[in-house]
Write a structure and sequence with these properties.
- By secondary structure, the chain is mostly helical.
- It has 2 domains: 35-81; 88-356, no CATH class.
- The chain is 65% helix and 9% strand.
- The protein has helices at 3-28, 84-89, 93-102, 104-120, 127-140, 148-159, 165-191, 202-221, 224-232, 236-246, 248-251, 253-281, 288-303, 313-325, 330-356, and strands spanning 34-38, 44-48, 52-59, 62-67, 72-75, 77-81.
- The strands form 2 sheets. The chain has a 3-stranded antiparallel sheet, with no helix packed on it.
- A hairpin with a 4-residue loop joins β4 and β5.
- The longest helix is centred in the last third of the chain and has 29 residues, at 253-281.
């Protein structure tokens, strides 16, 4: 196949992937109100409002659902949820619009963080390209498991044409580790002044446990024993590239400090944006301190590859943190989660378009001077 034909095939494939992904992402948006039915075993299924005629609560742990076709069935619970149109209808429109635009700022800061790590490890990448790759990763993250899918997308796009592919992947992993570490430290620092407010100490155990695990993990990785284990592992070239990047946590402290500082600013802005969405929804009883304690935990849990795009998991964590520990109406906590998730989807769709247009590709190298 000629180079020209190969380019056309790759361009068509890129456009096709984007179209399919865009359809999947848009179909994930719940525009209209719906029923969320918790069936036996804890599985939650969703149904349009017109499919359910009535819901009768038999007890605290059982409801009877009367379907539109006249049949009845039992379930553990059934609640009416608002779709995007209803959520948007009673939301402060100017404030909501401002928060939608503001979401792009953390995207840029996270791209800047990764760009610094790439430059610090000898990769000559343009900041514009890294932003487009990060933006495209955010788009594909909407229907891939947790944040792993977005990170995998970033690694594939950035490593195209690079010889040190393992090192590129390692910068993506290091970028994620730095972000998670800053989240854990931020959550621990914000929780400490308010820990006495929680009669249920499970939240404190979780955050401080993660902090302890992070410290132990750092000590183990740089211990002499682990260094010896690395020496006997197969695929020595790949291991050496990965380890060369991960050692930056100890050998390039200034670089890691800059990346951590950008993480802190990006995460603080992200938390303020979610708080702004809650204010736009008019949720009563919310305090800014709750968001700086709960959101780091939510970010960490939803980053795990548990569900597609974090759907279901994120709503549950919002309900547990803001509802159980924060005293907020659980339905409003779930509504906030849905509105935030839908906002991320809408804002990241241009990232898919940029991918389709080839904005994530590297520019051809300039010829050397005569």
């Amino acid at each position: 196949m000629s180079p020209s034909a190969r380019r056309w095939v790759l361009n068509l494939l890129r456009v096709g992937v984007t179209v399919v992904a865009g359809i999947v992402v848009v179909r994930m948006i719940r525009w209209d109100d719906y029923w969320a039915v918790k069936e036996a075993g804890g599985k939650v299924a969703t149904y349009p409002l017109d499919q359910v005629r009535a819901v009768h609560r038999a007890s605290d742990q059982e409801v009877r659902i009367e379907w539109a076709n006249g049949q009845q069935s039992s379930a553990e619970d059934a609640k009416k949820r608002e779709g995007f149109l209803s959520l948007f209808d009673h939301t402060n429109k100017p404030l909501f619009g401002a928060m939608m635009v503001a979401i792009l700022v953390p995207f840029f800061l996270l791209a800047l963080r990764w760009w610094l790590l790439l430059r610090g490890h000898g990769f000559k990448a343009r900041l514009g390209q890294i932003f487009f790759v990060t933006y495209a990763g955010a788009f594909f993250n909407n229907f891939l498991p947790g944040a792993v899918g977005g990170d995998l997308t970033k690694a594939i796009l950035a490593s195209s044409g690079e010889e040190r592919k393992a090192a590129i992947a390692a910068t993506v992993i290091l970028d994620r580790i730095i972000g998670l570490a800053v989240m854990i430290v931020l959550g621990s620092a914000c929780l400490t002044p308010y820990v006495s407010r929680f009669t249920d100490k499970r939240l404190a155990y979780l955050i401080y446990g993660l902090l302890g695990a992070m410290i132990v993990g750092y000590a183990l990785y740089f211990s002499p024993l682990f260094r010896k284990i690395l020496e006997v592992l197969p695929f020595k070239k790949t291991i050496a590239e990965l380890d060369g990047v991960f050692r930056a946590a100890q050998e390039k402290k200034a670089l890691v400090s800059q990346a951590a500082g950008l993480s802190l600013v990006a995460q603080a802005l992200g938390i303020l944006i979610i708080y702004g969405l809650a204010r736009a929804m008019g949720i009563p009883g919310i305090g800014l301190w709750m968001f700086f304690i709960f959101e780091p935990i939510i970010f960490i849990v939803t980053a795990l590859p548990i569900s597609m795009g974090g759907w279901g998991v994120q709503e549950f964590i919002y309900e547990q943190t803001f509802g159980t520990f924060g005293g907020i109406d659980p339905n409003q906590a779930i509504a906030l989660s849905v509105l935030y998730k839908l906002s991320l989807i809408l804002v990241s769709i241009p990232g898919g378009l940029l991918f389709a247009m080839g904005a994530t590709q590297r520019r051809p190298s300039e010829p050397p001077p005569a």
